[in-house]
Amino acid sequence: MLEHFFQCPYCWEQISMLLDKSVSEKYIEDCEICCNPIQITTLFSGSELINFEVKSIEQ
Q: What is the rounded CA–CA span in Å between residue 5 and residue 20?
């Protein structure tokens, strides 16, 4: 597991997330501060994180 910090696209608070190094994926998770849904995309090469994106989901 890899701890990764990023900024919420809604409330701008810094959030910490544990990422599974064995899986590149796209999923939706709620911000732990403001509870808005965030689309998270991760891309790993081996155990190295090479891309991490967060996007707000317009409702």
A: 14
The pLDDT profile of the chain, 59 residues, written as one tens digit per residue, is 999 999 999 999 999 999 999 999 999 999 999 999 999 999 999 889 999 999 999 76
* Residue 2: both structure tokens together: 């890899």
The Cα–Cα gap between 8 and 14 comes to 6
Query: Which pair of structure tokens corresponds to residue 28?
Result: 């939706």
Residue whose C-alpha is closest to residue 36's, from 13, 4, 16, 2: 13
Contact 5, 31 (CB under 8 A): no
CA-based nearest residue to 50, from 59, 39, 58, 41: 41
